[in-house]
Amino acid sequence: MRLVADQLSAARSGRTLFTGVSFALADGDGLLLTGPNGSGKTTLLRVLAGFLAPSAGAVSLEGQEGEPGEHCHFVGHLPQSKAGLSVRDNLDFDARFLGGGQMNRVDTALAELGLAGLEDIRAGYLSAGQRRRLALARLLVANRPVWLLDEPSVSLDQASVDVLARLIAAHRQAGGIVVAATHVPLGLTGTTSLRLGGGS
Amino acid sequence: MSAFLALVSRDLRIAFKDGGAIGIALGFYLVVVAIVPIGLGPDLNLLSRIGPGLLWVALLLSALLSVDRIFHNDLEDGTLEVIALGPLPLELVATAKALAHWLSTALPLVLLAPILGLLLNLEAGAYPAIVLTMLIGSPAVSFLGALGAALTLGLRRGGLLVALLILPLYVPILIFGVASVDRMLSALEPSSQPLLILAALAIATVVLVPLAAAQALRVNLG
Question: CB–CB of B77 and A79 under 8 A?
Answer without folding.
Answer: yes
